[in-house]
């Protein structure tokens, strides 16, 4: 009788359209705090996603587990904060496969130019044995716990003060890119001279002529107001930027098992939500930059894809790419 009554109540709640509140997750009575570090601006969809996630985590733990967001590199460069996380600091870092390749080389292939054509393809890769084995190596051999790796930030394009239509147009052009080999060697193969620096330094570096441009996704470009110092959006779409959130195993292991499961669940859930928002808003960001004076340049995509092959050969990823494509059913 009690079960029947409970089922009836649940049915009435669902039928009424009332929001279903997640059950509170119990811990051990202690309080925990997780800082989330990113170079992205506060207005970026990722940061807004972190705030939504933080609210749910606090509600579900009765305030015993809190998440605080630190945008615009407030806690330092990604590389420095990753090392802090490994040492046991209670911080999660927005990162990518290129940077994770500094710890497990083979995972870097996911960050190579033209490895994937869209978000769905990259998510298929995460179901492969290749991906699962490398995530396991990050945890067991390097002390890095992946909370989720489904935070998609769109395609990256070259942004310059001269139009770029083919790889030859990038000769001698100094382009800011992250320093991981998967990124820098790909950018070099595409014709540019890669320059490593923090994302928040790009605006001033262009003004001071330390660099000639950058390569980035629309959400970050708009957030940094690069339209004030750069004129052309060259639509190369060379990287499909998949980000992840990582913490150190040292800190993660101090959490009650219920809180560990909660963080994995909530970061995965919000990653999917935010990815959908980014995909939807990509054209909107581009339109806003065009409105501010930037011009869109269509490129010889086949020429850029052909040029990217050199980086796969240089880093020893050519055969591995074939094996991954076979596993996900891509020609």
Automatic annotation (TrEMBL):
<keyword id="KW-0732">Signal</keyword>
<protein>
    <submittedName>
        <fullName>TRAP-type C4-dicarboxylate transport system substrate-binding protein</fullName>
    </submittedName>
</protein>
<dbReference type="GO" id="GO:0055085">
    <property type="term" value="P:transmembrane transport"/>
</dbReference>
<dbReference type="InterPro" id="IPR018389">
    <property type="entry name" value="DctP_fam"/>
</dbReference>
<dbReference type="Pfam" id="PF03480">
    <property type="entry name" value="DctP"/>
</dbReference>
<dbReference type="InterPro" id="IPR038404">
    <property type="entry name" value="TRAP_DctP_sf"/>
</dbReference>
<feature type="signal peptide">
    <location>
        <begin position="1"/>
        <end position="22"/>
    </location>
</feature>
């Amino acid at each position: 009788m009690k079960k029947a009554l409970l089922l009836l109540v649940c049915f009435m709640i669902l039928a009424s359209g009332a929001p279903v509140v997640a059950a509170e997750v119990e811990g051990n009575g202690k309080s925990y705090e997780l800082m989330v570090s990113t170079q992205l601006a506060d207005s970026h969809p990722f940061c807004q996603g972190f705030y939504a996630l933080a609210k749910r985590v606090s509600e579900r733990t009765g305030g015993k587990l809190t998440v605080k967001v630190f945008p615009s590199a407030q806690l330092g460069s990604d590389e420095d904060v990753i090392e802090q996380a490994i040492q046991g600091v209670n911080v999660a870092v927005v990162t990518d496969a290129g940077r994770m390749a500094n710890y497990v080389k083979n995972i870097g292939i996911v960050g190579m130019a033209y490895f994937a054509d869209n978000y769905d393809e990259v998510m298929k890769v995460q179901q492969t044995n290749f991906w699962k084995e490398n995530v396991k190596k990050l945890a067991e051999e390097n002390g890095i716990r992946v909370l989720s790796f489904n935070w998609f930030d769109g395609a990256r394009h070259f942004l310059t003060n001269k139009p770029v239509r083919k790889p030859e147009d990038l000769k001698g052009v100094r382009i800011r890119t992250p320093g991981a080999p998967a990124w820098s060697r790909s950018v070099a193969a595409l014709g540019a001279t890669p320059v490593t620096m923090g994302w928040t330094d790009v605006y001033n570096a262009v003004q001071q002529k330390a660099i000639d441009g950058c390569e980035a996704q629309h959400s970050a470009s708009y957030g940094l107001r690069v339209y004030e110092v750069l004129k052309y959006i060259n639509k190369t779409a060379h990287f499909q930027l998949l980000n992840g959130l990582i913490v150190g195993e040292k800190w993660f292991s101090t959490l009650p098992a219920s809180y560990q499961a909660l963080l994995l669940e909530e970061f995965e859930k919000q990653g999917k939500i935010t990815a959908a928002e980014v995909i939807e808003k990509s054209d909107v960001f581009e339109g806003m930059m065009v409105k501010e004076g930037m011009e869109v340049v269509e490129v010889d995509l086949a020429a850029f894809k052909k040029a990217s092959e050199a980086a796969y050969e240089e880093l020893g990823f050519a055969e591995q790419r074939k094996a991954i494509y076979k596993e996900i059913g891509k020609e």
